[in-house]
Amino acid sequence: MTNKQIKTMKNHLSERIKTVPESFIRRILKVSNQPDVISFAGGLPNADLFPIQAIQQACVKVLENNGKQALQYASSEGDIGLREWIAERYQTVQGLSISPENILITNGSQQALDLLGKVLLNTADPIAIENPGYLGAIQAFSLYRPTMHSVSVDENGMNIDELAQLVKAKKPKLIYTVPNFQNPTGISYSQQNRQAVAEIVAPSNALLIQDDPYGELRFSGKAKTNFMSLLPEQTIMLGSFSKIITPSFRLGWIVAPTNLIKPLVIAKQAADLHTNYFSQQIILQYLNDNPVDEHIAKIIQFYGKQKQAMMSAITEYFPKDVHIATSEGGMFLWATLPENKSAMTLFDKAIQEKVAFVPGKPFYVGEKETIPENTLRLSYVTMSEAKIKTGIKTLSDCIKKM
Amino acid sequence: MTNKQIKTMKNHLSERIKTVPESFIRRILKVSNQPDVISFAGGLPNADLFPIQAIQQACVKVLENNGKQALQYASSEGDIGLREWIAERYQTVQGLSISPENILITNGSQQALDLLGKVLLNTADPIAIENPGYLGAIQAFSLYRPTMHSVSVDENGMNIDELAQLVKAKKPKLIYTVPNFQNPTGISYSQQNRQAVAEIVAPSNALLIQDDPYGELRFSGKAKTNFMSLLPEQTIMLGSFSKIITPSFRLGWIVAPTNLIKPLVIAKQAADLHTNYFSQQIILQYLNDNPVDEHIAKIIQFYGKQKQAMMSAITEYFPKDVHIATSEGGMFLWATLPENKSAMTLFDKAIQEKVAFVPGKPFYVGEKETIPENTLRLSYVTMSEAKIKTGIKTLSDCIKKM
């Protein structure tokens, strides 16, 4: 079997699959995952914080009390109890009034992006994404062959002039944002920036996606207004249990207006009938039996200390002309080297010294010559404070030698 | 929130989502699921046969021995241990030599269909599906807007003349088949029919999908040759744990040639990163710790008795001019009423008497006037033998009154 090949494969592949960028990061992760490497490359949460025992108790309880139903086919929309819990959490944490009918359970927020692309995008439809931005969104959308435009993000949020011009000139159907602790930069849109974005989007026909996987992981500063409050008829929210409970369950959700939920459910049904129902039941049982706020507080405390350790080491060791973007939460820091220094060259040097990170280049879209070579993403959540210190020192030595 | 509507929704929806048929069956299932209805309508396996306790033991073991990994992000290809188990099972049961590298784990075989459509189909590409055939496949493929052609199936399998003409005239890129215990008809392709199909497909560039969710559920007769043996370079096999262990885990797989697996993995990554890894680990633990052949034998014995009960009741009560298609396994029987009798009318009468089934019409593709009105699908797996007898008697009375 291994040697069996379809001889005419090139004729068979769809145009859309030929355009999807292969994830450069996956290749980097292979090098970075060697046990002797100090890796700031990963995008994974810290497995030490998974609530293993509580999940085990939830499994036993669900199977004992409700085994037949938990193992049977279920509705495409997702478990109603879980959707009610999510709606209630929006109320408690953000004061947002969401109906469970407006929530669709998905396989992580990655599937939410795929379903939105499927339901909304025709070939060549204009869309806007953050630059730099989340690679998974670029991958998911690119399968539907839109015309991708980008809006620069910096420590304040979206570049308002760029956004205004783009909305006016290109009329994007979708605007994809990660306003809280963005991947890859760790930055958040300021309150003023959100207001300005909303003012530009409101008179247009664009839909704004607020992807929010890290929103609950705030170490400092104050929560900012959700786009759902600023643009209630144009905002689609995505959420996920991956960063606050477990990613392996692939449990996320979409919050969307009623007339968008219906076609999304049809697309979900065609995609995989429904999301793993057993895992939906386990998560719900876990949430009902355990104080999730305490669990999230533990993650925040842990990650917050790791971020602090990385910032301290950076202050101590990094050359002063390396800029670190201000970040109040999440999992990443974003470093900008002096303009003449290449993060790819730094990667090659650092990996020889057993330190890994992700160069910033793959997170950008646009013409090659416009993409900065000197940015990098540093994840601080999986390494111990001691290793963070050692790794940052090594990285500093590599930068200084360039 | 509930009242929030996107005002310009019609302008937003993609062309592809507008063409997907909404599942008529879902609507029927809502009526059929009332507790006092004897339902032959469902497509669900019998929940009494789920190995609840063994799954519970597997959960505990996985979380105790390997909790951190089981709750972390995992590879898009799927767990290598699970893929090895699947490869070995093809060897043991069917004598097929498959490499784990040629297997991709998906969210049930439904996602396999979506990924294949995504990777292979451009708008208007010709494909061939069975008529009548599996609705989920029609739904999944139609999102990629192919030109759908159909080939009639009867008790021998595909109509060979129709297939030959179609392959010659339309050059389909894909041919979708369920050669074992097909949904909706319960029929299997004969050995001779498979041979003839393979001879027609071999010289063409078509890829043949053998979807096989029911293949292990044989009550009588002898296993037939897999298309993978007949068309090794053109066959894509789909498999699933839904009908033999549990459907709620949404665990299926694709077996494909090496040069097709690679783009499928990219599409999988964009679709949802990977399939629920916790559930992959549980199924593997379950398979390692329990004799799955004994479990499948139990299902076969149970379903076989239920099928026998339905056949006996049909022989006793049904008018002699109702034809039942020969079936050696699976979950369904296919009835054909005399030509002047409508299964939709029968459904309306029967549901008043608290008996439900699925009229055959939604399983057909093609021009309205070519679709027979007089077929119906009867599932025998979820009702007790006593209820099967009562339900068939009631249905007979309704037919006689028409």
Please provide a written account of the structure.
- 2 copies of one chain form a homodimer.
- With 402 residues, chain A is an alpha/beta fold.
- Chain A has 2 domains: 9-50 and 294-401, Aspartate Aminotransferase, domain 1 (Alpha-Beta Complex); 68-289, Aspartate Aminotransferase, domain 2.
- The first copy, chain A, has helices at residues 9-12, 15-18, 24-32, 52-70, 80-94, 108-120, 135-142, 160-170, 191-201, 227-230, 258-272, 277-289, 292-317, 343-352, 385-401; strands spanning 38-39, 103-107, 126-131, 147-154, 157-158, 174-177, 207-211, 235-240, 251-255, 323-324, 332-336, 355-356, 358-359, 375-379.
- In chain A, strand 6, helix 9 and strand 7 (207-211) form a beta-alpha-beta unit.
- In chain A, helix 6 (108-120) packs parallel to helix 7, helix 6 (108-120) crosses helix 11 and helix 13 packs parallel to helix 15.
